[in-house]
Design goal:
about 200 residues, Creatine Amidinohydrolase, 4-stranded antiparallel sheet, alpha+beta, 6 helices
């Protein structure tokens, strides 16, 4: 099944809501805030848009301080999108900055490989998983399984997790495939406030 018309509209709206969830989570992750506040803020943002959501927030005391690794899933109009982000509680250290840069680079490598004709396995391989880096590529909103070949009109979730010298980082999002380069729905549907995390 490939997305057309109203399906694409629903996926785009789900991505927009996921962006609002991410911003709400970031705003709630302040030093001294209650541990549950980021989760509650993200869920509230989804409910305000009448979307169904799932939020997972893991709290780590890393080499550079407290870090939240968040995985967001949003369903709207029967369609799913995913997003994953790293949230330092306080200022990020150079070690965490390096881990974030690695996760971002591997995520972008996956996007570059997400072209018609490639398989999802090839996309994952392009993200160069190894001892310190894991990568996951998932086909969303489609009734297919196995090492599926990419065609236009698919929604694909990509996620990278890495741990460099005790500094964990997570980066993930959902892309819509086209006849050429994919559309990164993270960047298409990010309020300005979220750029402070995506640009790290």
């Amino acid at each position: 099944m490939h997305l057309i018309g109203d399906d694409t509209t629903a996926v785009t709206e789900a991505a927009r809501i996921a962006g609002e969830m991410a911003v709400a989570l970031l705003d709630a992750a302040r030093p001294g805030a209650r541990a549950a506040a980021p989760y509650q803020a993200a869920m509230t943002a989804a409910h305000l848009r009448q979307a169904r959501a799932e939020v997972r927030v893991e709290r780590y005391r890393s080499a550079g301080g407290v870090v939240l690794l968040a995985q967001l899933t949003c369903w709207y109009g029967g369609h799913e999108v995913r997003r994953a982000l790293t949230v330092p509680v306080g200022s990020p250290t150079p070690g965490l900055e390096s881990a974030l840069q690695t996760a971002e680079e591997r995520y972008l490598a996956g996007l570059r490989a997400l072209r018609p004709g490639a398989t999802l396995g090839q996309v994952r391989a392009a993200m160069d998983p190894g001892a310190d880096v894991t990568a996951r590529v998932s086909l969303l909103n489609h009734r297919m399984s196995g090492d599926v070949r990419v065609v236009p009109g698919m929604t694909v979730a990509l996620e990278v997790a890495c741990d460099l010298d005790g500094n964990p980082a997570l980066r993930g999002g959902t892309a819509l495939t086209t006849a050429h380069a994919p559309i990164d729905l993270n960047r298409q549907n990010s309020p300005t406030d979220l750029n402070r995390q995506d640009s790290r």
